[in-house]
């Protein structure tokens, strides 16, 4: 059957019209694509294609052992002033002084500047910001900025470190764990697909992990308070105090005074940022006799009841060594040697050990090496040894009582804590766990090694208890057996001689002696009121120990032993 010609022509016309319409649609689409290829749509901002937008990550928080916040990302506020808009500078200074906790005279001096915008202070508390804003002072500006905030201000500053205004982590935990805390920034960029269409490609930011420290903020607060008081009362230049759990190596507190507020970092000398507990080696003095005596006990060259004849002086390598009080004690036991801190006796013991064994033990105890603590900028100290160009035979004598070598305070406490822990040294650490969302990484105690036998450690513990009970009584605590040793070291001058008037006073010990919960070291640099460790540092040691035993609910020895 054949179609009529009119109908067939009509179909051809319809097909042609449809084809023409399709061609028009395709042409419009191609034209639109071409337009989009060379023209930016109104919803795409300039430079979106050329420069990705960075999506910042939130830095991880830092908490103490019980979850109290020590460091957090938050909004900070710069209080600034436009000097040309302020007419009564004196009045503005007086109004702002109590809010900014700055002298009105200093604020008025700043406001006299003709440099335009003047930075007065950075504040962190929103109630202070609101009070300033409510004043409505012409020319006074409140500028919010993202920043790092330390809610407890000066507390544990030497351990935490800080993040500066440029976002750089500096010192302490902030610097050491920066790669964990900082997270990873994300990005947003505009790309074109295969059809030339624009779309956003987003890489989300990954926030930093949170850290939980071994520090207890209450323990830290007590230690800082006692240390500051000791520095002021003894008119010392500086103080350092560390508290450690000798059985785990966990640092419960670490304080340096004078200190600083990591929020403002307004200091005269930036050396205050450095944590002297790990970054400033010192000659430890007679506290080091603990190492000498326990090493000799371990080597079997002495017993606690061994005797020597103390003439008040001894010659080692051509150098005359005298007791600190220049007295002679006659026939003396090792126990009395340690209790009365006799340099002649310590030199006698090191000579009995011999140089090879003596320095082998010094190395075992970690001197001249890093402790491995998880804090930035730890130093090793130094020990001259036989074979070194500058070692002399007399060093064997002087090193025995902590002179002529340098240790960091943390190294010295780790050595004492190893004796407390039955001869086993633990690696010190300040971070207990790392929390990344739902993933929790616990940091277990790490054994650094056995340095002496449990028997030798127990023997020297009893000797140290005897010393505190009978001679070093300023460190004694009623109800608890305390093992401890004082130290008074000289300070070397650039000339190589020792300063005849300046000392470093220290006291180290642990309590309860038979089951130590706390190992504590207190150091005072250049005390002027009391020069000796037993008088300057021992009272601070005792107060720290006494208050912490109460805080941690450690029962007195008699109660504890009866319960066992």
Give an account of the 3D structure.
The chain has a domain at 217-431 and 444-563: Beta-lactamase, CATH 3.40.710. 42% of the residues are buried. The strands form 7 sheets. Strands 2, 3, 4, 5, 10, 18 and 19 form a 7-stranded mixed sheet that branches. The protein starts with a helix and ends with a helix. The chain is an alpha+beta fold and 564 residues long. It is elongated. The chain has 19 helices and 23 strands. The model has no long low-confidence stretch (mean pLDDT 90).
Comma- or semicolon-separated keywords:
564 residues; alpha+beta; Beta-lactamase; seven-stranded mixed beta sheet; five-stranded antiparallel beta sheet; 35% helix; 24% strand; elongated
Low-pLDDT residue spans = none
CATH level-3 fold name of the domain at 217-431 and 444-563: Beta-lactamase
Strand content: 15-25%
> What is the helix content?
25-40%
Q: In CATH, what is the class of the domain at 217-431 and 444-563?
A: Alpha Beta
Shape: elongated
How far is it from the N-terminal to the C-terminal residue, by CA? 115 Å
The CATH H-level homologous superfamily of the domain at 217-431 and 444-563: DD-peptidase/beta-lactamase superfamily
**How many helices?**
19
* CATH architecture label of the domain at 217-431 and 444-563: 3-Layer(aba) Sandwich
Q: Tally of extended strands? A: 23
Label the structural class. alpha+beta
- Which sheet architecture does the biggest sheet show? 7 strands, mixed
Q: What's the mean pLDDT score?
A: 90
Rg over alpha carbons:
34 Å
